[in-house]
Amino acid sequence: GQVRDKQELQEISQGQIPEGKAPSPQPEA
């Protein structure tokens, strides 16, 4: 996953991002 928008950055910090859209605890296959 990659960070694209400021909104995503905020959501990432809150841990509310769909898998594949942002860095997740699990490896991206």
Q: Whole-Å distance between the termini?
A: 11 Å
Class per helix and strand makeup: mainly alpha
Number of strands: 0
By oligomeric state, this entry counts as: single chain
The largest sheet is: none
- Could you tell me the strand content as a percent range? under 5%
Radius of gyration: 8 Å
The residue fraction in helices comes out at 25-40%
Mean pLDDT: 65
Identify low-pLDDT runs. Answer: none
Overall morphology: globular
List SSEs in N-to-C order. H
Instruction: Specify the number of helices.
Output: 1
Structure description:
- The structure is a single chain.
- This protein is an all-alpha fold and 29 residues long.
- It is 31% helix and 0% strand.
- The protein is built from 1 helix and no strands.
- The longest helix is centred in the middle third of the chain and has 9 residues, at 6-14.
- The radius of gyration is 8 Å and the shape is globular.
- The model has no long low-confidence stretch (mean pLDDT 65).
Key features of this structure:
29 residues; mainly alpha
List the helices and strands and how they pair.
Layout: H1 6-14
In short:
The chain is 31% helix and 0% strand. With 29 residues, the protein is mainly alpha-helical.
